[in-house]
Structure formats: C-alpha cells, structure tokens
Structures
1.
Amino acid sequence: MGLLEDLINRSGSNCELCGATANFSTYEVPPVSSGGLDGSLLVCDTCKNQIENPGAMDANHWRCLNDSMWSEHNPVKVIAWRMLSRLKSEGWTQDLLDMMYLEDETLNWAKATGEGLLESDKIIHRDVNGVILENGDNVVLIKDLKVKGSSMIAKQGTPVRRISLDKENAEYIEGKVGAQQIVIITKYVKKT
Ligand SMILES: [Zn+2]
C-alpha cells in the first residue's frame, strides 16, 4: 500500500486536523527526510492550503484543533502545535497550547521550523554598545570581573576569544580567559 492509503486507514478517511471527509492529500511534516507514516498526516485541501500559506490563515477554521490536538499521532500533534503557535495572537489558541503536552523530542520537532517565533522573541545577544554577538566572536572585557568559583579577577581589557552564546539567555555568553572557561554577562563585553 502507498502512503496515502496508509494514512486513510490510520485516520478512518478523515482529515487528521479538521475531520473533513474529502479532498485528501498527504502532507509531509517539514523538515523531514524520510517522510513515511510517522512523518506525515492526511490533510484536506483547506488545511493544506493554510499550512503552506500563512497569509491565508482563517483562524476560525483552526478551532478544529480543539479536538485534533489530542491525536495520538506525532505528525498530527506537531502540525497542531505549529498552527496554534502561528495563531497565538488569537488568545484561545494560547489556552490550547497550554493544555497540550508534547514529549521533548516531539516538541523539538514542532519547533524546528521556527513557527510562532516573533522576531522579538528570538534570543539576541548584544554587547555593551548594542552590537549583535555571534558564536565564535572575539570580545574584550570592559571592566574587571571576578571569576565565579575561583579567586581570579579577569581584568578590564582582557580578550575573550571564540565566545559561545547561551541558547536560553540573551544576557550570558561563555568564553575562555586564559585557560579558564567562564560565563560572562554581555553588557560587560565589547566586540572586537
Ligand atoms: Zn482539514
């Protein structure tokens, strides 16, 4: 059997998002390499069109997620999460997102396309002058800093090479001072 037939069997001939009973196609959840049953879902034309065209979103159509977000199938959960995230300004979608539970691995998959992230939500590290810092940049300290967990003081002007950014906190970077790997607050460094 082909993927479409497998999905029709799995879903009982319903769009796995809105329950529509006609105009099906398969939707491979990006980014996937293998596709297949565990990476795909059965969707109707209406759902597919809106998934692929964020500008065509009809928020009311997605009230269907109230039911389909409870699917036992990960590809369905992932798309439900992404559509709710895309519509998070609607308010009701946030309530559903709060109720939704995804395993870590599935949540990472759902987040993999950056869906629902506003530019302002992205974590951006900036130095004392507001210059954006990136992994691998070199910076200097702009004041003497006590190194946590040691008696060392890193002096103002000390170079810190090849910094790495804290993925979860825009205020922290890590880098080496001498042989020591230290955590530094971004407002105390200047990019060089
Ligand atoms: Zn549908």
2.
Amino acid sequence: MSIAELNALLDKRHSCRAFLPDPVPQDQIAQIVTSASRVPSWCNAQPWQLVITSGDETDRFRDAMSNEAENGTPAPDLPFPTSYSGEYQDRRRTCGWALYSAVGVERGDREGSAQQMMQNFALFGAPHCAIISSPAELGPYGAMDCGGFVTAFALAAQALGVATIPQAALAAYSPFLHQYFQIPDDRLILCAVSFGYSDTDHPANSFRTERAALGDFVDWRG
Ligand SMILES: Cc1cc2nc3c(=O)[nH]c(=O)nc-3n(C[C@H](O)[C@H](O)[C@H](O)COP(=O)(O)O)c2cc1C
C-alpha cells in the first residue's frame, strides 16, 4: 500500500453521526476486528476486549442506554478530562459548532443541543455497537493500546465501506455497562464504537473536522 492509498483511507474516515439500519454481515465485522487486532500493544498484551451487539440486541441496548442517560448518574471508569483550555478548548468548540450548525441547532439552544447529545445514547441509529474494555491492572498503558485498536478498527471498517464513531459518552455510564453486559469490575470500560453504513444524506454527516499544521505540534530537534 502506498502512502497515498493510506492517506486516502485516513481522509475518507470520519465520525459518522447518522447510520442506516442495514446490518453489517457478521463475517465483515469479524474481518474488521481481526484487522484491528494487528496493532501494537505493550508486551503484546492485546488488552482489548469487546462486546459487539447486532440486531435486536442493539435495539434493546439502545433503549436501555438512552433510559440510563436520562435517569442515571455519570460515573466513568476512566476519569473524563477535567478541562479543555487554549487550543484544545478552541478545537473542541470548533468541532462542536460544526456539528450543531450542520443539524440546525443555534447558539444558546440548550434543548436542541441536549437532544443532539442524546443521539449518542441512541447510537446515532447504528445497527451495531462495540463496547471496549481494558484490564484495570494495565492502567493508562492498557487504555493507550486500546486507543490504537479503536483507530485501527475505524480504518479497517472504512476500508470495507463501514462507518464508525468512537463514543466516550457511553463510558460515562460505566457501572450500568458493567451490569448490563456482565463486564467484570477488574476491567475498565473505555469507550464504545457504534458502526454500520452511513446515512450520507443526513446533515449530521455533512461536515468534516480539520487538523492542526505540523508546526503546531512537532518540536523538531537537529
Ligand atoms: C476516544 C474518543 C471518544 C469520542 N467520543 C465521542 C462521543 O462521545 N460523541 C461524539 O459525538 N463523538 C465522539 N468522538 C468523535 C470525535 O469528536 C471526533 O473523532 C473528532 O471530532 C474528529 O472528527 P473525525 O473523527 O470526524 O475526524 C470521540 C472520539 C474519540 C477518539
């Protein structure tokens, strides 16, 4: 594969926030997971474990997750960021406003933005959801290895025409996820990845995020 082909795949992937209901064939899901598992991990521990839902299981989970987000209290296994400042705050605002303006939510429309936020828990209509966990004993490096896995999952999916969105929003309700999927307490729930085929005409999928220039984040020495 050339760098041009790799960049084409990287450019094509984006976070999908409206899916068609059509399921992804099981053998393709297995292919995506197999490809993603080729990523490096410290000591080759391969700390990721996944629960993957399909069909009625996804719909049951969508309903239960939405209900939990309405009525439950956030308690993520992995501490959420305490704040975003400077350029991180700017980038966060920019991508947030890109989404809200794409779906017609105006500044100050708290109800509209809350409704859009709730779409996370309805899995943006995706027919599948993967819940990713890592052994607590591996700490932040286990989570780091799983981050690589999530990225490779998204790229492998894209290579098969399958759209994805990583979602920390669901991990806010980790105690619920442990109980719902019987994920043992010695594992940290890191995030979810909802996936399926993109509803390309949906306004939520009409914008793209930008990336900082190299000079903003590389300190060249020598
Ligand atoms: C670990 C992780 C968690 C994320 N959680 C959410 C989320 O809960 N909800 C959401 O809408 N997007 C979520 N995203 C998607 C990011 O907002 C998105 O990757 C970023 O804005 C860059 O846009 P792109 O993925 O379209 O390139 C998450 C991404 C990552 C990597």
3.
Amino acid sequence: MSRNAGENEIVVVGSGHNGLVAAAYLAAAGRRVLVLERNGWFGGGVVTRELTLPGFRHDQHSMAHIFIHANPLLAADELGLKARYGLKYVFPNPPMMSVFEDGTTLAIYRDRERTCGDIAKFSKKDADAYRRLAAQAATWLPMVAASLYTAPAPQGASFAMLDQSPEGREFWKVVQMSTHDVLCEYFEHDKVRMHFARIAGENLVSPDEKATGLGVFVFVGFMEAYGIGVPIGGSGRLTDALIACIKNFGGEVVANVDVARVRTANGRATGVVTTDGREYKARDAVIGAIHPHHLGRMVEGIDPAIAKAAAATQISPVACITVHAALKAPLKFRAGEAVRAVMIELLPTSYDTLRRSFDDLRYGGFSQYPLVGLGSLTMFDPSRVPEGRATMHVWDYVPFDRADGKSWDETKRDYAERMLEHMGRFIENVGSDDILQYHCDSPLDMQRTSSSFQRGDLHGIATSTYQSGAHRPTPELGQFTVPGIDRFYLVGPFQHPGGGVFGAGRATAVKLAEDLKIDLSKVAH
Ligand SMILES: Cc1cc2nc3c(=O)[nH]c(=O)nc-3n(C[C@H](O)[C@H](O)[C@H](O)COP(=O)(O)OP(=O)(O)OC[C@H]3O[C@@H](n4cnc5c(N)ncnc54)[C@H](O)[C@@H]3O)c2cc1C
C-alpha cells in the first residue's frame, strides 16, 4: 500500500520497549508510525538515565536482559538492531550469584558442570540433583521459548494437550506446584534450596506460592542457553536502537505527549486525543500500552463488561523499591570468594528466614530480613561511569500501602538507608563515605515513571496462573485485542508473556499484520 505523506497509519501510545518493538516491525514493513510518549524520555522500563551525578548512567528499571535473546527479534536480529543500529551485549559468566551472610557463595554458571561444582561445596547429592533439574530444564526450554513470542494458545487446549503424555503431565504438575515444593523434591541443603527459591522473588512472589514451580526450570534453562545480556552503554541502548530503526523507516517518536483517550468510530479505533486536547488520527490502527485498570476510561466505546473484568485484575501485593548509587569505587564484598555476576542476591544463612520475609510481606508488613538483590554492571561495562568509579542498582520488596500509614514520598529515604545499612553486612564500601550520591524509587515513583508499574508491580499485574498465557490480563484481552473495538491492539507487561524485557511487542505486531494483511516476512533483516 502506498504511503501518504503526513498521514499516520499506525499510532502507538507509549514508548516502552514493547510499543517500540511493535512500531519498528510495522515501520520496517512500510507503515508510517507515530509513537507518543507521556514522559520527557523514552523507553518506559528500558531506560538508562543520569539519575545521580553527571557521567553516571543508571538503568532506572530493567538492567538484566534475559528473555529477549530467544526472541527472533534478537536471535535472528530481524530488524538489524545489532547489525545496523548499534546494540551490543556482553554475557558475563556466572550470570547469577547468591552471597550468604556468612560469606559463602553459590553461583549459576552457563556451564552445568561448573554449577554442579559450586553446589557440591554444600552437597554432592544436590550437585547430582542439579544435573537432573538442568537437563529437564533444557528439555523443556524449546517448548517454553516457542510460546513466549507469539499470541498465546488457548488455555483449555494447552492443558488438554499436556494431559496426553507422561511428559506433558509432569510439566503440568510442575506448573501447579510451588517453587518450594519443587526444590524440596530435588535438593536437601538449605542454602541450595534458598539460592533457587530466591528466583521466585524476582517474580514478586514467595517460593511458597503455589503455581510458581516452573519458574526455576525456565530460569535455569535460560541461564544455560542464553545467560544474562548486559547491553553496553546501558539497558536504554535497546530503546535507542529501536528508535533509530523506526526513524530510519520514516517513523516518528515524540516525547511529552500524554494520551487521554483512544478515539473510536463505528467500533473501530481511529486515533487518539491527548490530555491537552490534541488529536492524532490513525488511518490503520492504534497500539496502546494501556494498563487493564485504565482501559474503561481510556478506550471509547469499550464493552463495560470487558472493562470491568480488566479493572478487577489483581496486582501483586509485593511491590519493588530501588536504590541507584554512584560509587567512589567498585564494590568490595566481604565474602572470601570473588563476587562477580549480573544479578547478585544477598541472602541470610537460613532458608526459613527468607521464607518468613515473604510471609511478612503477605501480611502487609516490611520483611524483617531485607531481600536485597543488586547489580553493579560497571563490573562489565565501565563505559557507564567516569574512570575508576562504579554504580550499583539495588532492589528490595515492600508493601505499596504502608501499614504505618506514612507516605512513601516522605519515608523512602529512610527505607533506602535501611537497605544500605543491611548491605554493610555483605559489602565493605557502601557507607556514606563511599556513596557519592543515590537516587531511590519507591513503588509510588515506579507508578509515576510508567503507568504499567501500578502500585510498584513491575509486571503490571500479578503473574498468577489465572492471569497468565491466553488469560493475561483477562480471557477477553489475551490475544492483544479488545473484542468489539476493531484495529486496536495492546502491548505491555500485563499482556502475555508478562513483565520483563521480552520484546513481546513483536507478537502484537504479528497479530496486527495478520489482521491488516501486512507482509512481515520481508522485514527480516
Ligand atoms: C524496578 C524495575 C526493575 C526491573 N528489572 C527488570 C530486569 O532486570 N529485567 C527484566 O527483564 N525486566 C525488568 N523489569 C520489568 C521490565 O522493565 C518491564 O516489564 C518492561 O520494561 C515493560 O515494557 P513495556 O514496553 O511493556 O512497558 P513500559 O516499559 O511500562 O512502557 C510503557 C510506556 O508507555 C508510556 N505510556 C503509558 N500510558 C501512556 C499514555 N496514556 N500516553 C503516553 N504514554 C503513555 C509510559 O510512560 C511508558 O513509557 C523491571 C521493572 C522495574 C519497574
């Protein structure tokens, strides 16, 4: 189809990486795309900013790019983000490491035998069990990965298929088990169990939560096959590469435009209107990073029953709080062994302490033992700081509504100080003399930086089974479309496959392209 100058064919609400991925595919397929972003910067959860001092570049939200590497977007470099638009990764080994308060450590390496060697420090039996777990994870990985980057299959049919074979039934069993139950089946040592149990926490859930068991297999499978990608220059380099690609194909990406509503006429999306009354028409389609809680007020003519179900989707009661620090010097861990990994988890010596910390959160309190994780990616990419300096990105979990009724704006620095003090048990140089400056994002700040992160849920909505796959965020909205509104498509962490840097906007682009008969096969680089 020929392109008319000045006419937007596809308008995308939000410059998060998923909106940008969808926009980039459609721009590369010859459509005129316009991306509108509310913030004064681009990228949503994939952004690198000078949050503290000049020259210190911090990944404000995502820092670990894991699941996007199996996506054909990067696996086949379909848009040339790596070949043409400057996106470069390093894959440090080990990608993940636990540091226990008594100074011992345990890592997951890309190489299975090296991980087994580390586990054997605690239990030889557990090292053998890891061989079995990792082999199972590798067997399941292709099936899991194949489901992540396309529209989800119907839930009923998927489970019926799994029920046809012993292998399928084993997979389904693990899907329904808690992480803790799975770990008790495999491992005997407290620290080995705790090391893998902490992975569930990254999904904002306790290891005791039912239907989280598969997470360990997915994580281990991805660690061995892909590791964790650290983009040179920062997480936001992915955003930069996507924007360069969109612009190269004549698209536009505009900041400081707050979209109030998606316009519809005769059951079809026709454009958007901004909070200051500007209208942008979309000849072919609108794509929106619109949280399910906001669909009712933002999409004209939406079926009230669909909007009501979307508004009832549940957000995790466990919110995230982060501290980004500019450091005088690289971190010095107290642990006897070298600590060097993308994700570093600071853990107690007893597994029960970790489990009880999640229980504290379940009841709306602060966890008695902070569940601090951190990344100091200047270990692998010194280009992000002035010479000799370092950064750290620290996260912990808190309730969005504080039991003491205090506001996060008034108290976030007190909580940040608690995190830093706790870290002093593990790290020598995180005192006030070592930190040049720090920035703290409370759960409220996260919601402010992207409406995806409501109540500090970095996955948009909880990652429970009933809000997963084709039922994410609701059964009606699971195919990236809104029944009753033609030519309107959804992107966001609240859609399949969930929160994380997946490049999931590709699946939305594929769906839109099928509907509009756009040939994406020619796009592939
Ligand atoms: C603290 C934190 C740490 C994280 N760490 C990791 C990690 O290490 N690895 C990982 O894989 N994932 C991580 N995540 C999750 C990951 O960042 C997100 O799941 C992902 O970025 C979501 O991308 P998205 O494009 O779907 O949405 P978003 O990134 O939320 O983008 C949506 C964009 O749309 C804009 N927008 C929304 N509504 C409007 C409107 N009406 N008008 C105009 N613009 C609008 C928003 O401002 C935003 O820029 C983290 C998230 C957080 C909060």
4.
Amino acid sequence: MTRVSEETGGNQPTSARTPQWGTVMRVVVIGAGLGGYEAALVAAQLGAEVTVVDRDGPGGSAVLTDCVPSKTLIATAEAITDFRESGELGIRIGEAMPEVGGIRADLGKLNERVKGLVRAQSADIAQKLSREGIRLVPGVGRLDGPDRVVATTADGAEEVLPADVVLVATGAQPRVLPDARPDGERILTWEQVYDLRELPERLVVVGSGVTGAEFASAYHALGSDVVLVSSRDRVLPSEDADAATVIEDVFTRRGMTVLGRSRAAGVERRGDGVVVTLTDGRVVEGSHCLLAVGSVPNTEGLGLEEAGVRLDKSGFVEVDRVSRTTARGVYAAGDCTGVLMLASVAAMQGRIAMWHSLGDAVAPLDLHTVSATVFTDPEIATVGWSQTEIDEGGANAVTVKLPLAGNARAKMQGVRDGFVKVFCRPGTGIVVGGVVVAPRASELIHPLALAVTHRLTVDQLANAFTVYPSLSGSLAEAARRLHRRGASPDAPRTV
Ligand SMILES: Cc1cc2nc3c(=O)[nH]c(=O)nc-3n(C[C@H](O)[C@H](O)[C@H](O)COP(=O)(O)OP(=O)(O)OC[C@H]3O[C@@H](n4cnc5c(N)ncnc54)[C@H](O)[C@@H]3O)c2cc1C
C-alpha cells in the first residue's frame, strides 16, 4: 500500500509555481471527496481562488458510498448485537419476543436512513464549500497539460479552467472480477447494497480484507446467514495477526461460515440466487453475493500522463510525502495515489498539498502516525508500528499484550473478546505503536495516537489518570507493565 516516492519529489521545486506578490493563486481541484474538499478549504483559507470539479457530488465516495453509509449500517448492526447479547446482563425481552436470536433488521427502513444521512452530509459539505467562496463545478474534469483543467458538464458544455496549482483527488472504485459482473440486484459491489429492500437470506461475501470483514460482520448481525470467502489462511490478512484471530473466532462462534484458503473464480446468477465457484471447483450458493476484492484508481482518461504525471503499473498516481506528482504544479491526494486508502489520509494528503503549494508551513506525511480502525464487532484499532514490522526486525520495540478479560469494566459490560497491545522503544520507553481490539476501539486508540505522534513515553502514558472502571484503564496498565522493560535495552522483548 505504501507508495510514497522520495524520488518523485526530489526533482521538484520547493513549492508549485512560486506565487508572485499581490497575485491570487488559482487552484483547481478534480474530485470533491475527502482529499479534494479538505484541500479546497485550506486553499481558500490561504487566500487562493478555488474551483472544484466533481462528477458525483460533494463528499465523494467516503460520504456517498463508502464510510458514511457503511458505518451507518454498522451502527444498526451494533445495536442489534447489544440487544441480542443482553440476556447475560439480566435483561428479559418479554413474551412478545421470546427468541432474542430472532431479531432482524428492517433493511428497507435502515437503507432509507442511510441514504438520508448521506444526502444530509453531502449537502453540509456543499454549503461549507460555498460559504468559503469555493466554486463547485458539477462535471467531469481532465487535465489539458499541467496548468489547465477542462470541465465537461452534464449537458456536454466544456469550460477551461487555467490553474497555478492542480490537485487530482479522483479516488477509486470497486474492482470487479472478469467472471463476476455485478448486476446491482444479487451480485453487488459495496456501493450497491443500499438499494436492497429485503435482508439477504444468505449472503456470500467474497474477500476478507477490511471491507469484506466489515460487511460480513454487519450483515450477520442484521440477521443474514453469511458465508465469508477468504483467499488467505485467515481473515484480515493485512491486520495484526492476534486481532484477526479474535475476529475470526468471534465470527465462527456467532455462526458465520468462514471459508479459508478459498479463492472465488466466478459468480453467476441462477434463478433467485447466486452461485460462487471457487478455483478448486467447489461451489457456494447464496441468495446474494457481495464482491469486496479491492479498488482500482480513477485515473484513466484524465490526461495525466500527457501532462507529465507518472502513474505506477497499477494506475495509481505516484506522489512524494508532500503530495507532489512528477508534473510541476500538479499534486495528488487520496485513493488515486494508493498511499493508504483511508479518508483521514486522503484529507491529510490534500491539506499537505495546499500548504506546500501555497507556501505555508508543512510537515511531510508520516504514515507511522496514522490511526485506523476495522469496524467489525469487536473493532480493531491500530496506530504506529505494527507487530509484523517489529517481529520482522523493521522496528526495534518491546511489546506487551493485555487481554480485556481481566479488565473490570469489560467484565461488567459482558465484554470477553479483545485485548490491548502497546509497543515502545527499548531504552527510552517512547511509545511507537499499539493495537486495541474492543467494542468502540476506534474511540480508545486516541491516547495511543497522541503518544505516538508526540513521542510520549510509556511512563507518561501510564501516569495520566484513567477513569476506574474503564477499558482505557487497560492502556495505562499495559504502559505500566512496560515501565522496566522500556527502560532497559537488555530486557525481554515481549512482556
Ligand atoms: C466500504 C468502505 C468503507 C470505508 N470506510 C472507511 C472508514 O470508515 N474510515 C476511513 O478512513 N476510510 C474508509 N474507507 C476508505 C475511504 O472511503 C477512502 O479512503 C476515501 O473515500 C478516499 O477519498 P478520496 O478523496 O481520495 O476519494 P473519493 O472519496 O473517492 O472522492 C473522489 C471524488 O472524485 C470524483 N471524480 C472521479 N473522477 C472524476 C473526474 N474525472 N472528474 C470529476 N470528478 C471526478 C468522484 O466522483 C468523487 O466524488 C472506506 C472504503 C470503503 C470501500
């Protein structure tokens, strides 16, 4: 995933086309996703004249098809799981609903809620752009050389937009397999699931990366029978191995079928269902199939290479750590760069591009400070160096892992699955990373993110008060356990 090229920027001037005193810089952004609109806001704040050309609507995939809708769906899935597992906490559901396991989502209503939230969020962004004096041109943009963008609107009209700085933030789209063509009804990409009115009886999810695992977790909680087809030994192959093991155990314990080492060769529609054929000849039948096999960048037909912008062999735009491409004055941010496909990273790359091109203070992107979450149930949140990097010798660190089973609050809440891990430098005890597997781990990772970003030591982390009882108490406890180990370069590397 990491595709930050030092070389790209090495030949570039310190900023874009050096601003002349008294001239207003013209910035044209292609794409109004997180990468594009956050950049536009920074550019406007720095006094540039900003135009954003966008094809699908403010907010881009993050708002219209990816993060916002999926996390809204997951919010309902979480509520159902809490309800379903509430018996242990002494809750009786009553005569009307004797079988708690029988709860199912009203998918039609849920999807209406999703679409309403998406529309509202996109409208909020449109308003914000307009309030800051940013011009939004609905249409398709392409480069005509490095200093001109041509926007084509729905009625076919063309507008030429001269630019001192161009930001390409066109995102990515779901990858489809040659023998698994989505039909929007039974064979679906993650962008198409929100048109479903009825819950799939049996959903086959192809792909067990972050997107596949999140949807498998959510639909299983909503009431679908789920089969997760994973081409690797375990689900979430790129995540912390201990965390992925917890998730796979929870999936199977709750009744999901996980098919490991099973690669889908094709998916076809048969009557009212689908048939997924695996490369070893086995077939898996279902009512619906969700394809979650990665993304491809939206970089075709944009005039990039003609403008001097180098693409890698997969079509991603090559950028350096301040978002410069190989063409002077042309920057790129977000999924179209493939650096790290997260909304937060897209936004930061976009902001960095503007700070750099418009001559403001800027620190290059540091991927080792990024916190990220897999929104399965429980969630996996990570920041900094990974266990794999440490195990493979890429980072010198001491590690500790504490299961949540020993945490008082976890016991009260009936939380059995999960753990916290903290990694620190031997000798200095500086925190370099961590993993949290827990309900709402996305909210618990922030103290570790602060520690990693500001190079706090395990002692500083441990000495800040935590509430008793709280899950965050386990973070302080883990840091406390590293006190001596962190201080001694010769101590054992795992506590
Ligand atoms: C299911 C799913 C869930 C996710 N959940 C999360 C999450 O919870 N947290 C997180 O951090 N990340 C999440 N991500 C990743 C996140 O969605 C992306 O990293 C983020 O959307 C990237 O933003 P972007 O600005 O690069 O591109 P996009 O958001 O894709 O925006 C690109 C914009 O460019 C427009 N465009 C494309 N080509 C042209 C053109 N030629 N002319 C004009 N406009 C054009 C598109 O219409 C779009 O509006 C998720 C991804 C998926 C698939």
